[in-house]
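Researcher: Good morning. I'm working through a list of sequences from a screen, and I'd like to move beyond sequence-only analysis. For each chain I'm collecting a predicted structure so we can compare shapes side by side. This is the next one on the list. No need for commentary yet; just the structure.
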Amino acid sequence: MEYSIHTDVKYGPLEVVEVGRLADGCAERWWNQTLCRVDDAVVRLGVLEGEFHWHKHEREDEFFFVLDGKLLVDLEGRTVELEPRQGLVVPKGVSHRPRAPARTVVLMFERETVVATGD
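Model: Good morning. Structure tokens for this chain:
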């Protein structure tokens, strides 16, 4: 599967972040856009359908928060299922694979240094 990952920062301080408009306008199956910076972290919007590959981030934690749909996060030995209004922190160094059986909208919070596809 192809991933469309955009690391440019879409919104600056004191700008209204149009999460709903961006998500509603996305027709891609695996799309990720950096929304804004918060200190040394970023907030990213993901519109996901299908599977990402197994990967890990050696130096950064990653937080997934589901807005719409269902996100499955495969970990070694188990799968965590996230519904809307649920989140999960994947600690640095932990191999994981996000999956969305149907179109799912998530927010991701992570340090700006993270490489979305893994180390």
